[in-house]
TrEMBL record:
Cofactors that this protein relies on: Zn(2+)
Domain annotation Alcohol dehydrogenase-like N-terminal: ranges: 25-143
Keyword terms of this UniProt record: Metal-binding, Oxidoreductase, Zinc
Lineage top rank: taxon: Bacteria
Family membership: Belongs to the zinc-containing alcohol dehydrogenase family.
Bilayer-spanning residue ranges: none
Protein name: Threonine dehydrogenase-like Zn-dependent dehydrogenase
Amino acid sequence: MLAMDYRGPRRVRAAQKPMPEIKHPQDAIVRVTRACICGSDLHLYNGNVPDTRVGTTFGHEFTGIVEEVGPDVTKVKVGDHVLVPFNVACGECHFCKQGMFGNCHESNTQASAVGGIFGYSHTAGGYNGGQAEYARVPYANVGPTVIPAGMDPDDAVLLTDVVPTGYQAAEMAGIQPGDTVVVFGAGPIGIMAARCAWLFGAGRVIVIDQVDYRLEFARNYAKCEAYNFNEMADPVVFIKKTTDFMGADVCIDAVGAEASGNAMQTITGRKLLLQAGSATAIHWAVNSVKKGGVVSIVGVYGPTDNLVPIGNVLNKGLTIRANQTSVKRLLPRLIEHVQNGIINPKALITHRIPLEEVADGYRLFSDKLDNCIKTVLISPSAKI
């Protein structure tokens, strides 16, 4: 089969790989119909996440047709068109039973933090992902969810990560009616977090980024204010001034390891890899939020140390909430929001690219070319 193949930092290609096989009675094999390139994939692509091994197939956002199931699979059947949450989750461990599917204790047994993730580094279990013609899906009684009749596959594929992660970013923030919410990052997750902030009653939503076309997209899609931090002397001072020097009620870090804006953070976190990515967005969030405010983190960092202003967290009495998104927990509500027209996920998709051209897709997204917001890969076996 054709699949994305990682060859090292900023080197990916489409290559022929063996077909996936049933390895466990609860496995399913799906023929992939849609697969996205995520901003989190760019952290791998650019070499910012440890133990990303040559030969890995990325892709944790995908939909597909069930082609084969193991003997213990009862929740999906051959022929079902399913969306596959990015979490690999058993559904039975202590954490899954609490709805913390992003922290499954069984799917990534060598880790003490994150659960399994499709198509990510071996720190997340080493599972191959869905940027391929076919994918093996473990725990098929838990993750794969049948796409409702009439739902556009382009909407469904964004329910595997982008919509739930943006929604959980707003949910974790504990937004109260009338709150001022600042989102750092105008990628797909940040834009969705800004859109979802209104659902929780925000009175004002501000997005901070440095790419003008993304900021314009955020203004139109999320109906928010959007500002370029390169046009500010200091983003923290700007936010303080625009909130009567109180600070925002909530700040959301939707950037993660590759944040720009601070030379020291960029050099130590992105160039020399002395910390788990540039923590610039965390600094801005902690220093921009009001005393007693909430910082919600969904931007991805590597599993090592970061230089963060923990003293300011203490002295300001802040609440920090962060996690990988528990997609399965949120799906029922978000499917309803999509069906009722409250959220329009597919509007984020700006580029559809054949899987054969995956290298071009990564360069386009990573280098922010051609006004790219979200890229979807279409495999030659998609047929939908």
